[in-house]
Amino acid sequence: MHWITSLACLGVCLWMAVGRSLESGTWEGYVIFGRGSSSFNPCGSRETWWVKSKGFSKVAEKLQADYERIAQKPYEPVYARLRGEVSRKGQYGRLGSYQRVLYVEEVLEIRSKRDDDCAS
Q1: Alpha carbon separation from 30 to 6, 17, 25, 35, 40 (Å, rounded)
Q2: Architecture in CATH of 23-111
Q3: According to DSSP H, which parts of the chain are helical?
């Protein structure tokens, strides 16, 4: 009986560790939207993150609307600085094709891509 209690406690601890592994910050890079696709490629990284709103907010939908006003065609990279939380590495989004999830809390800047982006 004691081992069942220990196993239950271990399960709760693991669940809490997985659920609390978000890193908050300001992120800059390129957002890309297309049919069924919403991704973010951070400056200085080869990763691709899935873009979602945090909680019940509609920030990702606003980001997509801004993107569609700026981009000339679907899947065109557009520069963005975003504030939010990033998940731990894993498989997320459609078919698990994204390394992380960026839960967007605020769009700080969004504009057309320039040559000097990501220089800092």
Answers
A1: 46, 30, 16, 17, 6
A2: Beta Barrel (2.40)
A3: 2-19, 59-70
Alpha carbon separation from 15 to 3, 9, 61, 93 (Å, rounded): 18, 10, 29, 20
Q: Is 66 helix (H, G, I), strand (E, B) or coil?
A: helix
List pLDDT tens digits, range 56-113: 999 999 999 999 999 999 899 999 999 999 999 999 998 889 999 999 999 999 999 9
- The answer to whether the beta carbons of residues 61 and 77 sit under 8 Å apart is no
pLDDT digit string, tens, across residues 24-35: 999 999 999 988
The reported pTM is: 0.79
Enter the tokens of residue 2.
């004691």
5 and 53 Cβ atoms separated by less than 8 Å: no
